[in-house]
Amino acid sequence: MSHMPGFGDSATWPAIGNHGDPRNDDEPADEVEQAQDLMGEIREQIDRAEAAVCRRDWQTYRIAILNAHDLAGSLWS
Fold first, then answer.
1. Percent of the chain that is helix, strand, coil (3-state, to 5)
2. pLDDT: is 34 or 2 the higher one?
3. 1 vs 4, 30, 31, CA distance in Å?
């Protein structure tokens, strides 16, 4: 006996490409997750800069602030 494709079998699925199809690898990245990741990276640099100020380590402070500035600027590039 042969098996006829039925409801739920991959043979009955429509072609890949519909929005929200989990088989579609071209889905855009989640904007909220990207924003949270960027804010986390900026926070790390600000925390690094703040710690450097407490230690009077001006070179590390400048580097951390420049990194935070570059990360923030990456929104528009």
1. 60, 0, 40
2. 34
3. 9, 46, 50
